[in-house]
Amino acid sequence: MAVPSAPPAPPPSGAADVPLSPAEERKRLQLVTTRRRATVLLAAVAAVFAGTVVAGAEDGSAMGYLQATAEASMVGGLADWFAVVALFRHPLGLPIPHTAIIPERKEQFGETLGDFIQSSFLTPEAVVERVQLANVGDRVARWLADPLNAERLAAHAADGAVQVADLLRDEDVQDVLDGLVRRRVEATPLAPLAGRALGVVTREGRHEEVLDAGLRSLERYLDDHRHELRSRFEARAPWWLPGAVEDRIFERLLDGARAVLDDMVHDRQHDLRRQLDARLAQLVVDLQTSPELKAKGDRIARDLLEQPELRSWVAGMWTDAKTHLRSQADDPSSELRRHLARAIGAGGQRMLNEPALSASVQNGAEAGARYVVEHFGSEISQLVSGTIARWDGEETARRLELLLGPDLQYIRINGTVVGGLAGLLLHAIAQAFG
Question: Which of 3, 32, 69, 192 could form an SS bridge with 43, CB 3.0 to 4.6 Å?
Fold first, then answer.
């Protein structure tokens, strides 16, 4: 009797070109082995049945029992062979109805699977329960507190910032920055702002050290430019004034100026210095209240905005920022990545130390999971059914046979054995009551 070995149907066009992964190759070898075992067992019981028929076995004899057992084993083995093969292809290539179920009903299978996933797995209650069991808040805190994880996340964050910066068009960013600068300058009255800044500097004598440094600088300037000042004085002196007198007058003037400056540096109660302080105090008030000074400040602002260098400065600022960001992201020891890693690690440690913060993260994860399921559950179901619908039918059957085939071949073996036992039992009952 010819025993079908159920060889796999040839793959469709293009399917054979799809390489198998190492795991799938192991499954294929396992499928070949188990199919061979099931087929050999079926061929063996068929040979036994043929032998008993040729030998002319009698019903009540041992040969009769053996024949009944072999016959039932063949029936069970053939039935299970047909059922297994019918899942993936037409048995013996015959277009028998309700066979080749997977290739021909792939779309219905995908829809059913998608609906099953949505109704049984993607329910808000099931997903939230899983998130609760996962203890997201504590796990996230411990993960972030690990320095190695914090460094990896900092590197990813820095790389992400670089990619976002690269996605933006330089012209668009420059237009936005230019507009921000212009609006800020136009909306800010320069004179009152300068008055407030000068008031902060002069408050409680904070400007004294600056004034000291300025007076010393002026004194050094007089010393360093003595000859130049002497030439200018000589050029402006009357022609009839003798040279010796000119020198004497110049030296007296220069020494007097230096002496005044030195006195102002060492005596903060000096009259000239107190007058200068009074002028500065009045200037602070005038800058914030004088309409004339406010108008001058507005004109300075408009003149500044009309300068073409402003656009170049904004463009250069953005270019420099991108370059600096890229260099910082590429350097594992950069200040940016070290600051990010410290901030991430500190955040994780804070979550560990503050249960309320960890609980907030947990509640946020649960709310996010519920929102996704409630609003996008149908899209996930459609993703499953749509993905399966795009699969090639024959290739899908081949892949599933690699996944399920070894276990299904054991069903063939079990059917052959169980069928034989059932046949032996039924033959024994028939003989006992016949």
Answer: 3
